[in-house]
Amino acid sequence: MPDVMYTTIEAIPRVLLLVVGILGLIFSIRGRAKGVSGLMVGAFVVMLVATAASIVWQFVALNLPSWVASERLTADEIRLIFLGVGVPLDAAALLSWLLVAIAVLKSGRQPRQPGVAPYPGPVNYPMAAQPGFPNPQPGNTQPGHPPSN
Prior knowledge:
- This protein is mostly helical.
- It is built from four helices and no strands.
- The mean pLDDT is 80.
Protein backbone atom coordinates (compact mmCIF):
# COMPACT_ATOMS: atom_id res chain seq x y z
CA MET A 1 0.00 0.00 0.00
CA PRO A 2 1.36 3.45 -0.81
CA ASP A 3 2.16 5.89 1.97
CA VAL A 4 -0.67 8.19 0.89
CA MET A 5 -3.17 5.38 1.49
CA TYR A 6 -1.80 4.71 4.98
CA THR A 7 -1.85 8.41 5.81
CA THR A 8 -5.42 8.72 4.55
CA ILE A 9 -6.50 5.82 6.75
CA GLU A 10 -4.66 7.35 9.71
CA ALA A 11 -6.41 10.67 9.08
CA ILE A 12 -9.93 9.18 9.35
CA PRO A 13 -10.25 9.77 13.14
CA ARG A 14 -9.12 13.37 12.69
CA VAL A 15 -11.62 13.89 9.88
CA LEU A 16 -14.34 12.53 12.17
CA LEU A 17 -13.16 14.97 14.85
CA LEU A 18 -13.40 17.70 12.22
CA VAL A 19 -17.03 16.70 11.52
CA VAL A 20 -17.80 16.72 15.24
CA GLY A 21 -16.16 20.13 15.54
CA ILE A 22 -18.25 21.52 12.69
CA LEU A 23 -21.45 20.17 14.27
CA GLY A 24 -20.41 21.53 17.64
CA LEU A 25 -19.71 24.93 16.13
CA ILE A 26 -23.12 24.98 14.44
CA PHE A 27 -24.94 23.99 17.63
CA SER A 28 -22.94 26.41 19.78
CA ILE A 29 -23.65 29.29 17.39
CA ARG A 30 -27.35 28.40 17.51
CA GLY A 31 -27.09 28.19 21.28
CA ARG A 32 -25.65 31.70 21.48
CA ALA A 33 -29.17 32.99 20.80
CA LYS A 34 -30.32 31.03 23.88
CA GLY A 35 -27.56 32.30 26.14
CA VAL A 36 -24.84 29.67 25.63
CA SER A 37 -21.38 30.96 26.49
CA GLY A 38 -19.24 32.36 23.70
CA LEU A 39 -16.41 30.25 25.07
CA MET A 40 -18.05 27.21 23.52
CA VAL A 41 -17.98 28.85 20.08
CA GLY A 42 -14.33 29.77 20.62
CA ALA A 43 -13.51 26.25 21.75
CA PHE A 44 -14.94 24.72 18.60
CA VAL A 45 -13.17 27.26 16.39
CA VAL A 46 -9.84 26.45 18.04
CA MET A 47 -10.62 22.72 17.75
CA LEU A 48 -11.40 23.04 14.04
CA VAL A 49 -8.25 25.01 13.31
CA ALA A 50 -6.05 22.61 15.28
CA THR A 51 -7.64 19.54 13.70
CA ALA A 52 -7.37 20.92 10.17
CA ALA A 53 -3.73 21.88 10.78
CA SER A 54 -2.94 18.41 12.13
CA ILE A 55 -4.48 16.78 9.04
CA VAL A 56 -2.43 19.04 6.78
CA TRP A 57 0.72 18.33 8.81
CA GLN A 58 0.08 14.61 8.53
CA PHE A 59 0.20 14.85 4.73
CA VAL A 60 3.19 17.24 4.77
CA ALA A 61 5.07 14.71 6.89
CA LEU A 62 4.70 12.22 4.04
CA ASN A 63 7.71 13.97 2.50
CA LEU A 64 9.91 12.88 5.39
CA PRO A 65 11.78 10.29 3.31
CA SER A 66 12.67 12.96 0.75
CA TRP A 67 13.84 15.25 3.58
CA VAL A 68 16.16 12.52 4.80
CA ALA A 69 17.32 11.61 1.28
CA SER A 70 18.21 15.19 0.46
CA GLU A 71 20.72 15.15 3.32
CA ARG A 72 20.11 18.84 3.90
CA LEU A 73 18.47 18.11 7.24
CA THR A 74 19.99 16.16 10.09
CA ALA A 75 17.97 13.87 12.33
CA ASP A 76 18.12 16.48 15.09
CA GLU A 77 16.77 19.17 12.77
CA ILE A 78 13.91 16.90 11.67
CA ARG A 79 13.15 16.13 15.30
CA LEU A 80 13.14 19.86 16.03
CA ILE A 81 10.73 20.49 13.14
CA PHE A 82 8.35 17.81 14.42
CA LEU A 83 8.61 19.22 17.94
CA GLY A 84 8.02 22.75 16.67
CA VAL A 85 4.86 21.67 14.87
CA GLY A 86 3.61 19.08 17.36
CA VAL A 87 3.75 21.19 20.51
CA PRO A 88 1.59 24.06 19.16
CA LEU A 89 -0.92 21.57 17.70
CA ASP A 90 -1.19 19.76 21.03
CA ALA A 91 -1.40 23.07 22.89
CA ALA A 92 -4.25 24.20 20.61
CA ALA A 93 -6.09 20.92 21.18
CA LEU A 94 -5.59 21.28 24.94
CA LEU A 95 -6.79 24.88 24.79
CA SER A 96 -9.96 23.87 22.93
CA TRP A 97 -10.83 21.21 25.51
CA LEU A 98 -10.04 23.62 28.34
CA LEU A 99 -12.41 26.18 26.81
CA VAL A 100 -15.10 23.49 26.49
CA ALA A 101 -14.67 22.57 30.15
CA ILE A 102 -14.89 26.21 31.27
CA ALA A 103 -17.95 26.78 29.08
CA VAL A 104 -19.66 23.70 30.53
CA LEU A 105 -18.88 24.85 34.07
CA LYS A 106 -20.24 28.31 33.31
CA SER A 107 -23.41 26.88 31.76
CA GLY A 108 -24.28 25.17 35.06
CA ARG A 109 -24.71 28.53 36.79
CA GLN A 110 -27.98 30.42 36.75
CA PRO A 111 -27.77 33.34 34.34
CA ARG A 112 -27.97 36.76 35.95
CA GLN A 113 -31.20 38.53 35.15
CA PRO A 114 -30.99 42.28 34.75
CA GLY A 115 -33.04 44.26 37.19
CA VAL A 116 -33.65 44.39 40.92
CA ALA A 117 -33.77 41.21 42.95
CA PRO A 118 -37.13 40.69 44.66
CA TYR A 119 -37.32 41.51 48.35
CA PRO A 120 -38.10 38.30 50.24
CA GLY A 121 -39.87 40.06 53.13
CA PRO A 122 -41.01 38.32 56.31
CA VAL A 123 -41.70 34.60 56.09
CA ASN A 124 -45.49 34.72 56.53
CA TYR A 125 -46.07 37.98 54.71
CA PRO A 126 -49.05 37.48 52.38
CA MET A 127 -48.33 38.40 48.81
CA ALA A 128 -50.92 40.07 46.60
CA ALA A 129 -53.07 37.62 44.65
CA GLN A 130 -52.77 37.13 40.93
CA PRO A 131 -55.71 38.43 38.89
CA GLY A 132 -58.68 36.05 39.17
CA PHE A 133 -57.66 34.57 42.54
CA PRO A 134 -58.81 35.66 46.01
CA ASN A 135 -56.39 37.52 48.27
CA PRO A 136 -54.57 35.28 50.76
CA GLN A 137 -55.60 35.34 54.40
CA PRO A 138 -52.99 36.03 57.08
CA GLY A 139 -51.76 33.03 59.04
CA ASN A 140 -50.82 29.52 58.11
CA THR A 141 -53.47 27.73 56.09
CA GLN A 142 -53.30 24.70 53.91
CA PRO A 143 -54.48 24.95 50.32
CA GLY A 144 -58.13 24.02 49.93
CA HIS A 145 -58.96 24.55 53.65
CA PRO A 146 -60.55 27.71 54.98
CA PRO A 147 -58.71 29.39 57.85
CA SER A 148 -60.06 28.55 61.31
CA ASN A 149 -61.24 31.62 63.23
